[in-house]
Amino acid sequence: MTQQMHNLSLLQSKKNSMPSSPNAAKRLYRNLSEKLKGSHTSFDEAYFRARSDRLSLRKTSMNFQCNEAMFEAVEQQDLDAVQILLYQYTPEELDLNTPNSEGLTPLDIAILTNNIPIARTLLHVGAKESPHFVNMESRSVHLCTLVQEAQQRVTELSAQVMNEGLGTDNTEKEKQLKAWEWRYRLYKRMKAGYEHARAPEAPTNVCLMVTSSTSLTVTFQEPLSVNSAVVTKYKVEWSCSEDFAPLVGEIIMDNLQSLRCTITGLRTGQRYYIHVSAYNMRGWGPPRRSTPAYASPSNWKDCSGREPRHRGHTEALERLLQQVRAAHQHYNCRESSKLQNTGRKQSVSRSLKHLFHSSNKFVKTLKRGLYLSVIFFYKDNLLVTNEDQIPIVEMDDSHSSSIMQDFLWFTKLSCMWDDIRWLRQNTSVSISSSTTLQARQKMLSAAAQLQNLLGTHNLGRVFYEPIKDRHGNILIVTIREVESLYSFFNGKWMQVSKLQSQRKSLSTPEEPTALDILLITIQDILSYHKRSQQRLPPGLYLGYLKLCSSVDQIKVLVLQKLPNVLCHVKIRDNSNVSRDEWEWIQTLSGSESVESMDHTSDCPTQLFLYELQMAVKALLKQINLPLHQAKHFRLYTQEVLELGHNVSFLLLLPASDDVCTAPGQNNPYTPHSGFLNLPLQMFELVHFCCYKEKFISLYCRLSAVIELDSLKTQQSLREAISDSEVAAAKQRHQQVTDYIQISFAQSTSEPLETCRGAERNRPLCFHISTVSFLLISPFSHSENLVFPQCAGAYGKSLPFTSKINIRILI
């Protein structure tokens, strides 16, 4: 170290004096970019040195100057300069953790001078203490050495200045003397700070959570007193015995961006005790035990041995989709030979049809019919045609009054836009084809037409309901957010406000068309699209299930700000429900009361009870329901709904007669504004697209193809004449029926027999516990939920599921 100080004196003799004002570091930073620009080599060096060597030399020079600027900013206690450097350069460019010639890092200086704001700023970006200080004694000896050598240097320079008098050399000596006097005061302040400091107190609010069957997570906060020294490390220790002898393991945390530690690789069901201690430059402080004092790694599925809901389902759907495609190739090959003789007749028919068919252009005005519109947007800009209109094409000019089933089928195409051409090729339509099959062929043609006109396959997601007007027009809308304002075929970009103002001057407000309604509500549509793609932060939530039925569909109550999940409030950040917590929930159906429970803070379920109480009250307030009216609400106790991405739900339900409001029935609950009744099938689609995208993509592909196949095989059965044709048609129809049953079983996560039983209108019963204990009264006996008969309206269609089932809603 003495040799380092001599090297320092030689270096200082070639430099200007140390900055003596707080603005020195800022001045150095302002000049830094100019210095870096000027650090080029001569012509001869540039000629003979490789370009990579020049860049490496320049980078080294830049890193040295950045590191020098950081040290000066910390020594001057200039927080602004430190933040500017950290904003402008990475920790690697600043060489933040490399000790200087005195063996110190910027963090060492900040800690020893007890500059808490700068120290925390440096810790936040990963700064570390010098590796030279292996223990407290080495740090103390090192600081004493720095003070002594700086004092000696000041004495030597003072004597030289006194002896030499005035002169150029003496002026340089005086500058060096001032710099060393400043450094001597800095080292003395650092030494005094070290001697005054003490080890920190124990961390506070040490909380222990069960985060999986093999892991625990502990969170904590800083000690109330750090005893004049910033905490730079924490130590988490765990043991199977209460006295921590022996220790099972420990983790040293030197990254303090988050005071949270997850311990993995633990044994399921084993009880672990955990405590946490803090460290500063004076050593480790006393440990603090967690609350609760112990926990056992577990998961709610450990109680019943239940397998994960979607395990193997994605792979099964992939195999089934391959089988369906292979069957298509097989039957297409068989039918191609039959069609060779009639090829010329069909080509003439197509030519005549093309001759009298309107050209492939966008629709300018709506005339009673079914239309497809696409909204491509980027920030406040929409893609419009060359006529300054939203791109629209005609689907059908003679649609039926009810298009709900066709619309629900079309929504599945948003997961398979690339397969539109393949679907059209495999869907042959004749005059004798069913109305449904013809309608879906027209939908495929309209989608393909839009793809060709815009020059892109991806048309986005389908809006949750068609837009209708009094003129008989129905507008199906797809929405897609693009990454930039790149060009499309037959399109240009226009601001939303400008497009709305132009349309407003042309429309008649008394009888707005579907296009007018689209432009009026465009902001709501765009907001829905953006919000439907947002995921909840990880955690455990309490969801509220409320349905209402109409003639042809069932709707579910959701929040407008997040329509892809049920109405909800957050219970906690930890998404895992432990075995103890789940067993406690199961006991709510018994006669045990809250008063008989263990209310000590060490009880693992005590905190969970409090969190659940707060969540129920917050959720009831959200849906505008007084607490005394919620006595008959129930908690779904069959399973925890694991949505994915570390998001889990417990489900709160109204009384059994109020779960689904039938047509004409008064809704006993009137939520505040900000809610939306979303069609159940659309809710499933936006939910899965956000949380299980691969699963829903495979299922939509499979379901859309099989539904078309079912329509085609039914048509073949009707048209079959000979015995061989009837036998072949029956065989193909049975194969498609089997595909439908298998795909439905994979999508609902229920045994096939349960699905068949549901088709026979059996009541769907689930384990439900009353939640009055969470409000004002003791426990009640458990009761089962039986859905009302209004569920039959939904059972008639098979868009995504065939019966209302809470477990399918996830």
From TrEMBL:
Entry-linked PROSITE patterns: ANK_REP_REGION, ANK_REPEAT, FN3
Alphabetical list of SMART domains matching this protein: FN3 (SM00060)
Transmembrane spans: none
Organism superkingdom: Eukaryota
SUPFAM superfamilies given in the database record: Ankyrin repeat, Fibronectin type III
Mapped ANK repeat ranges: 102-127
InterPro entries: ANKFN1, Ankyrin_rpt, Ankyrin_rpt-contain_sf, FN3_dom, FN3_sf, Ig-like_fold
Keywords in alphabetical order: ANK repeat
Disordered, as annotated region: 1-24, 288-308
Compositional bias per record (Polar residues), positions renumbered to this chain: 1-23
Record flagged with keyword Aminoacyl-tRNA synthetase: no
Every Fibronectin type-III domain range: 202-298
Protein name per UniProt: Ankyrin repeat and fibronectin type III domain containing 1
Source organism: Gallus gallus
Species classification: Eukaryota, Metazoa, Chordata, Craniata, Vertebrata
Gene name, Swiss-Prot/TrEMBL: ANKFN1
